[in-house]
C-alpha cells in the first residue's frame, strides 16, 4: 500500500539535524565574514582545504615562519615561487607592499582569483610552464609536493630545479628524507612545520642553504 511507503524514508535523528544546522550556520557566518568589510582574501582559510586534492593548510604560525624565511632567503627585491604551497603564498601576500615578488604554482584553479601571480601547475607535467616563467629566475622556491611518493617528489624536483637560482625550501614527510637528499640535495631542518589539522604523517622542512630554520 502507498501509505506504508513513508515508513521507509530514513529520518535524521535530532542530534544529526542539530549538527547539520550548526554546520550550515557556520558556513553562513564564514561567508558573511568573507563579504564583510576588511576581509583579507589572502588569509589562510579564505580558500578552504580540498582533501580530494591532498590539500592540508599550514597553521598560521608555520605559514608565517616559512614566509619570513623565504623573504630573508630571497633578499631585497627577491623573487619567490610557491609550488603547491598556497598557505605560504597567502602569508607572503599579507605583507603587502614589501620589497619582494611572489607567484603561486598550483593545480587548484580556485587560486586563479590571485590573478597573474597564479600559474596553473600539474606535477605530472613538471616543465609544462608558461614561456614567461624563465629558468633560474627565482631567488628561492618553496615547495610542498601534494603526495608522499618518490614519483611526485621527483617530478616536483624537476620544476624546482628549473625555477630556482639555487635556494630550495622543501616541506614534505619525514619519511621522504632520503629521496629529498637524492633529488634535490636538501637536508632536514630542526624546525617542525605544523598544519591547521593534525596529519598522521610526521612533517619536516628541508633546505640546501644556511637557513633560519635550525
UniProtKB/TrEMBL annotation:
Location in the cell: Cytoplasm
Molecular-function GO term, any one: nucleic acid binding
Recorded GO CC terms: cytoplasm
InterPro entries, per the entry: DNA_methylase_N6_adenine_CS, Efm5/EEF1AKMT1, Mlase_EEF1AKMT1/ZCCHC4, SAM-dependent_MTases_sf
Pfam families: N6-adenineMlase (PF10237)
Catalytic activity, as annotated: L-lysyl-[protein] + 3 S-adenosyl-L-methionine = N(6),N(6),N(6)-trimethyl-L-lysyl-[protein] + 3 S-adenosyl-L-homocysteine + 3 H(+)
Domain of life of the native organism: Eukaryota
Keywords from the named record: Cytoplasm, Methyltransferase, Transferase
This protein's record includes keyword Ribonucleoprotein: no
Any one GO BP annotation for this protein: methylation
HAMAP family, A to Z: Methyltr_EFM5
Protein name (database record): EFMT1 methyltransferase
Source taxonomy: Eukaryota, Metazoa, Chordata, Craniata, Vertebrata
Gene that specifies this protein: Eef1akmt1
